[in-house]
Amino acid sequence: MIQPVGGRVTGVLANRCGATDSDHYGVDIAGNNATAIGAAYPGTVAFAGWTSGGGNMVTLSHASGYQTRYLHMAQQPVVAVGQQVGQGQVLGYVGSTGNSTGPHLHFEIRRHGAVYDIAPAYVCGGTVTKGAPINLAFADLAPANAAPDRFAFVNAAGVLYAKDGAYSPWQAVNSGGATKVVLAGNRIAWVQGGNFYVKDGIHGGWLTMAGGGQVRDVAVSGERFAFVNAAGVLYVKDGVYSSWQAVNSGGATKVVLAGNRIAWVQGGNFYVKDGIHGGWLTMAGGGQVRDVAVSGERFAFVNAAGVLYVKDGVYSSWQAVNSGGATKVVLAGNRIAWVQGGDFVIKDGIHGGWLTMAGGGQVSDVAVGNDDWFAFVGGGSFFAKQGVYAGWLTMAGGGQVRDVDIVT
C-alpha cells in the first residue's frame, strides 16, 4: 500500500500525539484543505458518503480481507459505491467535515474487520510523502499492478477518445468540440468550447476547472493545474478545489508544468518560476520563442527560425541542437524529441546523435512516454510504438486525428 496523502502525523491509533483516545483507530495526517486523497491500494468502493463522526468518507475493500477508510473529506467523495479504483486514484479531497478540529485525513487499515496495527509505520510529528510505500508487512497482499499505459486523441469533430492499453478499444470521453488533450497520471484534461475540463480516469465524472469560453491552453502535473485565457493571463492552482492564482498580467500563449516548475511563453519570451509564489526567471528573451518544454533540470525552446535550444540546469548555457526548421519540442527522461520539416526526430541527451523516428514530412504532433513509448500524428492518423526500433502500430486511422497524448 502507498500513502494516500502527504503531511505531518498528528495522531497514531490511541496516541493523539499528546493525548490518549482509545476510540481512535487510524492515523491522522494534517494537510492543506482540498489536497487530493489517493487510494492506498486497488479495490472496490464499499462506502462513499456521509457519517456523523467521519464526515464525508470512503471505505475501500481490497484483496485478502483488507479494507482502508478515508475520513473528513472536504466535499462528497468523487467515487461511488461499487466502483473499481486503481492505486493512487483520487477518492476525494482533504477537509475537516464530521468530528474534526482542522483539515486532515484520518486513514485506517483493517483486515477481516479488525483494526490493523499501523503504529510501526508512523511517528507523531513526523511527515509522510504521498505515494510513498507504507512501511508495513501486508500478509497475502500482492504488489499492486502498475497503472496501464494510456493513450488519447482528439478527432476533427473534437471528439476525445481515450484507452488504457495499446490494444484496448477506444472510449469516447465527450461528444465533440475538444481542441486539445493532456494526460497526467490518472488525469485526463482537455479544452472544449474554450473551457477547461478534467476527469480522473476514463470512467470518472467531468469537472469544469475553468469556464467562460476563454481558455486557450492548459497543463496538469500532479495536483497542480494551469490555464491561459484569451487575454494571455496565466492562472495556476494547487488542488482541484483551491482558488486560481494569476501568475502574470497577460500576453501568455502556452503553459508547461513540470515538477514544481511553471513555464510559459509570453511575448515570444520563455519564463519559468518555482511554484506559484516563486519569482519569475527569464530563460530566453528576444521575442522569438515559439515552443518550450521542461523536464527535471532540462529546458528547451524553439525560436522563430526553428532552431531548437536545450540546456541542463537553469543557469547553464543554451546548446543549439539543430540548424532550424523545428516547430515543436518534447522532453521525456533523457529523450529530446521534436518535429522538423514534418519529420519526427529524437536524440538521447543534448550530445547524442539524431534519429529520425518518422519521416515523409507528414508529422504534425508527437508525444513521448516512459517505458520507451513514442507516438505521432502523420497524415491525420495516430501511430505509436514501444521501443525505438519496433514497428509502428496504427492506433487510429481515417485521417481525422488532430491532437494526441500518451502517459506510460
List the helices and strands and how they pair.
Blueprint: E1 7-12, E2 27-30, E3 36-38, E4 43-51, E5 55-61, E6 66-73, E7 84-85, E8 90-93, E9 104-111, E10 114-115, E11 127-128, E12 150-155, E13 160-164, E14 171-172, E15 178-184, E16 187-192, E17 195-200, E18 207-210, E19 215-221, E20 224-229, E21 234-238, E22 245-246, E23 252-258, E24 261-266, E25 269-274, E26 281-284, E27 289-295, E28 298-303, E29 308-312, E30 319-320, E31 326-332, E32 335-340, E33 343-348, E34 355-358, E35 363-368, E36 373-378, E37 381-386, E38 393-396, E39 401-407
Antiparallel strand pairs: 1-2, 1-11, 2-9, 3-8, 4-5, 4-7, 5-6, 6-9, 9-10, 12-13, 12-39, 13-14, 15-16, 16-17, 17-18, 19-20, 20-21, 21-22, 23-24, 24-25, 25-26, 27-28, 28-29, 29-30, 31-32, 32-33, 33-34, 35-36, 36-37, 37-38
Descriptive account of the structure:
- By secondary structure, this protein is mainly β.
- The chain has 2 domains: 122 residues, Glucose Permease (Domain IIA) (Distorted Sandwich), CATH 2.70.70.10; 258 residues, TolB, C-terminal domain (Neuraminidase).
- Helices cover 0% and strands 50% of the residues.
- The protein is built from no helices and 39 strands.
- The strands form 9 sheets. Strands 1, 2, 4, 5, 6, 7, 9, 10 and 11 form a 9-stranded antiparallel β-sheet that branches.
- A hairpin with a 4-residue loop joins strand 5 and strand 6.
- It is globular.
- It starts with 6 loop residues before the first strand and ends with a strand.
- The mean pLDDT is 93.
